[in-house]
Amino acid sequence: MNAVILPVVLPMLAAFLMQPLAHISAFTARLLGPLVLAISIAMLVQPWFLPDTGPFTVTFAGFVPPLGIVFYVDRLALIFAVAVPLFTLLSWGWSTDTHGDEEKKAREDALMLLLAASATGLSLSGDLFNVFVFYELMAVSSFGLVVQKGTGPARIATLRYLLISAFGSVLALLGIAILYAQTGTLNLAQLGQLAPAALHGPAGLTAFAFMLIGFGVKAELFPLNTWVPEVYATAPARIAGLLAGLISKLAALVVLRLLVVVYQDTSASQLLLLLGTLTLLVGDFSAWRSRDFPRMIGFSSIAQLGLVFIGFSIPGPWGVLAGLTVALHHLLLKTGMFMLATRWSGSLDRLVGCAKSTPVAAGLYLLFALSLVGIPPLPGFWAKLVTLAGLAEQGSAMHLVALGAVLLGSVIKAHYLFRFALKLYSRSDHPALRHGLMDLGTAALIGIALIAATIYVVPIGERLRAVAQQAADRDTYIATVFPDHANTAAPEGPR
Amino acid sequence: MIQLDFVTILYVGGIGLLAIGAAGLVICNNFFRILLALVVAEAGVNLLLVLVGYRGNAAAPILGFGPQGAQMVDPIPQVLVLTAIVIGVGVQALAISVLVRTYRSYGTLDVRELKARFEVDLAAEMGIESTPGSEAPAA
User: Fold this and answer.
1) Domain layout of chain A by residue ranges
2) Domain membership flag for residue B135
3) Is the model's pLDDT at A187 over the cut of 70?
4) Domain membership flag for residue B17
5) In this structure, are residues A175 and A207 in contact, taking their beta carbons and an 8 Å threshold?
6) ipTM for the complex?
7) Residue A138 forms contact with B (CB below 8 Å)
8) Contact predicate A218/A225, CB 8 Å
9) pTM for the whole structure
10) Which domain does B44 fall in, by range?
11) What's the CA gap between A323 and A317, in Å, rounded?
12) Do A345 and B126 touch (CB under 8 A)?
């Protein structure tokens, strides 16, 4: 069972070994990152095939929770934990940006590995202290990755991102401080036990609001998401894809855990619904107005994250299912979209008529756009349908407004995405912009995965429903972390 | 009448520092000042965290340090603050290094001016034709 710790430890170790190794043998250093990530994937895929599918915990050094730090492993955590090394590997910079500069390459690889390690840790942590540390580590490694182009705009964008992100961390830390003052613990399961008595008052909800806004910086949540378009326009496209696709989802996962375990049945979900709706509308309207490809898909990613949060705000397993399907769909799609943006990094008008020179890329864009808008039978349709059905079932005024916003957002999204598709397919004499084989290959791989998901939508839906059922159950979470709560006298030995 | 004991004053100080920092983030128009405001806000939160675990007349949480069986200060917030301070220092150092490089590129740290230069440079990089009278892409 301890195999789930290694995907956090190994990339971190490899990240620190990267620089010395690059001095000894540049070739080995180049291989190290992908190798470690591949091992991580293999280890994290393993628990899926174990016969016993119940969630389990991993304790460290024999300290039992709540005193010790704990990793909580259920299906939801595993999905994201597998996605981290997988998508890091998909976004890996094989050789494209560095032009054979080995030292720079080693630096970037080390940052990517740190990002993967901290993101995996974040998805597994069952303890707010650890969540905070991993979140910060993830933030710092992402700063290094987005500034690496070294142009003036990249520096300004990174500076703003850094300051906003650091302020978000201050807010999150304040929220954690309030939680601790109210309960005296940072273990999520114990917080869940104490929450109905200690945290469902104004102080607890204030803490949630601070943590929501703080962790919402990475999750592109309104109002602290102004860094998003600037960073995505100036960072290397595959890094932007990694941030938009993967990292934002992990921050959303933290919020979901807080909501399910600590703040179930409170008005916290109302706040989430409100901010999610605002995020959605701001994202879609801004995307409609943007005139370059990276910022258009950056704003569209804000809108999608808004939809994820709207989904999570629906109470019960249905809400988790709604948010999860939208999140996974977007994780897949945005990574693919940004792969296309590697070459299509400029103004939309520059890309007129590109379909003629790069028919595959244009076709993939069309496929992604169709799924993003939610045209049946593509997976995006089912994700949106689940969300809309959940909102309609809730039926309160707030939920109906959100439902209207989702539909309005879809219309706007359809307009700006297809407007660009029309440009791609219209006639012009612009020079051809051919994609690199690696980028196009990755995007094609994602396109194939999308089509496969369309075909196998029923079994995938069943699986995700089971995952959501498990993740939405607070009592399971608490019972898993404290298995012998009834007879607390018997201390548990080290595993 | 509120009793102004030592801990209350510290609480007020922590919240005050946080408020000053937050106000600075909103008001200031220079990236370096914004960074300083951030440092102040962080100090405020760290102070609040330490206070959360503070007990009056308690010993340091080290075995054998205070008298046997004496009440101890809660160590967990202190650990959290230590971690937060270290992370904070790292992030600030990184911010300053980016700040210095930005200043070398543009010769200014004024927020509005840099924002304008950002839009112009990016538009040039991306090949967006600026039509007179049209507003900049949404931000």
Assistant:
1) 1-124, 125-475
2) no
3) yes
4) yes
5) yes
6) 0.88
7) no
8) no
9) 0.90
10) 6-126
11) 10
12) yes
